[in-house]
Write a structure and sequence with these properties.
OB fold (Dihydrolipoamide Acetyltransferase, E2P), five-stranded mixed beta barrel, 5 strands, rod-shaped
Length: 157
């Protein structure tokens, strides 16, 4: 039996394989960026509908996959993007994070300096900071580290 006859006799298996390949490509190549994930989910649902006898015929099956891909993308795009952008919790990449230090120069979003452990370190305001300026000799807290630049915030009131 040739491959085309096998696929024609087992539409649901074709869509299961299509879903599996799409999931694998999404996870390994695209890194959960979205497009193939939605198509894979739609292919899986279509395969299930074919298996339960609710769909038949290539035209209806491909149309259903296309419509489901659009609907799944519409409903899941924003929640998945919010999940991806939610961060990974507290940054612990440096033992300097959460230290209270004095500003050795005025600090703005463009630059400045702090004094830590007897050394002046380049600093700038963290994007989440409420202030737009930290004056020289004012205390601030190290929020994160970006290369060799400390991102600082004002002390909480």
């Amino acid at each position: 039996m040739d491959i085309f006859a096998l696929i024609n006799a087992n539409h649901d298996h074709f869509f299961y394989i299509l879903a599996g390949i799409s999931f694998i490509l999404e996870l390994s190549v695209l890194g959960l960026s979205g497009p193939l994930l939605f198509f894979a989910m739609a292919s899986l649902v279509t395969a299930l509908l074919i298996s339960f006898g609710l769909l038949s015929g290539w035209e209806v099956e491909f149309f259903t996959t296309a419509v489901l891909t659009g609907l799944i993308a519409l409903f899941l795009w924003r929640p998945l993007k919010n999940f991806q952008n939610s961060g990974g919790g507290t940054d612990t990449s440096s033992d300097m994070i959460s230290r209270v230090v004095p500003a050795s120069k005025d600090i703005t979003a463009e630059g400045g300096a702090i004094r830590y452990s007897g050394i002046n370190w380049q600093a700038r305001l963290d994007p989440g900071a409420n202030d737009t300026f930290i004056a020289k000799d004012d205390q601030c807290i190290i929020a994160s580290v970006d290369g060799n630049v400390m991102l600082v915030k004002e002390l909480p009131s």
